[in-house]
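Researcher: I'm preparing a figure for a lab meeting and need a structural model of a single chain. I don't have an experimental structure, so a prediction will have to do for now. The sequence is pasted below. Please return the structure as C-alpha cells so I can convert it later.
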Amino acid sequence: MKRFIPSLSALVAFEAAATYRNFTRAGEDLGLTQSGVSRQIASLEDQLGLKLFERIGPRLVLSDAGRNYVQAITTLLDGLEEASIDLVRGSRTKDVLKIGVQDSLGSQWLVPRMKQFLQRAPETAFNMVPLPFDADIAKADVDVAVLRGRGAWADAHAHHLIAETVAVVAAPSLISPGDALEPSEYHRFPLIQNAHRPDSWLRWLEAKGLSRQDHITGPRFSQTTMVIEAVLSGIGLAVVPTVMIEQQLADGRLHMPLGPPVPSGLSYFVVYPLRLGVSKPVLDFRDWLLAETRHLRQRQTPGLTAAG
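Model: Understood. Here is the structure written out cell by cell.
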C-alpha cells in the first residue's frame, strides 16, 4: 500500500520556510532559489489540501494547520537525521555518554584530561555539554556531570572530587614575581571582575580576614576563561580557582603575589541522576575521575576540604 507521505524535499523546504518565515532565506539555507522553495510549498499544500502559510501584508505567517504540522514533522525529521548520522558513524546517539560540566572547568581542566579517559575506556563515545550553575541534575539531559557546589543535589549520587581553592593571581608583566606584597595591598591594582562569580573578591577578603579598603572596581568578564585570559594579558588581578590555572602557575605565566590559596567553601563533585540507573560508561567515568583527582585530595589539608 502506497504511503500518504509528502516528498522529503517538500517537508524540508516547509520546515525551513516555517523557521525563517521567509522563502528567500529558506532557499539560501537549503541551496535553493526563492521560487524553488515556493514550488515545494505549493506542491505540499496541494497534496495536503490545506494552506500552510498566510500573507498578512508583507508578512508571511503560518496558518493554524501549518503551525501544528511543523511541530509534528520537525520531531520526525530530527529522528530521521539522527538515525542517518548514527548509521554513518556506527553508533547510536542515545548510546553516547553525555557529560555535563559547569563554568570554565570543562575547557580549563576537564577537556585537557579526557585523552587519559579515552585511553582507559577507548570504547566509550561521549558528548560534553555546558550546564548552568543552578542546573537540576535530576532533570538535565546528561548521564553524568562534574559540578561545583556543596554536594547536595536532589535525586542524584554525588562523589567528592576536590575542595575548591582560589587565589589572587597576576601576570609577571603586572607584578614581578620577586615583589613582596601584603594581601592588604590588593586595592593598588585593577581588580578584574567575574560576572559568573560576582562574590569572588568578597569571599577572598573574608578568607584573608581583610576589610574592604575601597570599591572593588575593574573590568568585568562573563566567564572564568575570559578572566584568566585577562589576567594573563596583564590587565589586573583576579580571584581564580587554582584548579583551572595549574599549568599557568607551573610555567610561570601566572603567580600568586598576595599569598597562598584559600578555600572557597565549595567543592567539585562527579554527579549522576538516580532516575537513569548506573551504566558502565558512567561508572567508568566516575572511577576515572576519582582516580585522576586522588593526588589533589591527598595534598589538600583537612581545613581546605569542604563538607560533602
